[in-house]
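>> received
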Amino acid sequence: MCQCVTGARLSKSLKAIYQTPCNRPANGSHLAKECERLWSVPLSEMSVEDLRLLIGQGIGLEHIVPLALAVLADNPRAEGKLYRGDLLTAVAGLADAFWHDNPELNNLLIEVRTELEIMIETGTELMPALSARDWL
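>> returned
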């Protein structure tokens, strides 16, 4: 079930929350080393790229996804190091089982989707007026 991140948890790292070492080999790939490093970073210090990476690796999802959804609520096109919207792509790519097990988070994702739909609709309506403009 959803364990939404509280203020007290934001100051903790995944290592402190789970009270276990990271299960990624530190002598592995760059990705494995980065996951090992992020395991010890307080949640409050996670960047968009950190969230995207951990979600992509399925690490600490019950703690990381609420943070990602908070970012996406402010900016659905939030980007890490790949492209605009890469965080949303990572979140949207999570298995259906995760969303069924975490209905509160699912509903937050639906709110992000609804906001994105409104943005698209507004953009479509404004496009004729905006298309009349050109670089000066």
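>> The two ends are 54 Å apart (CA to CA).
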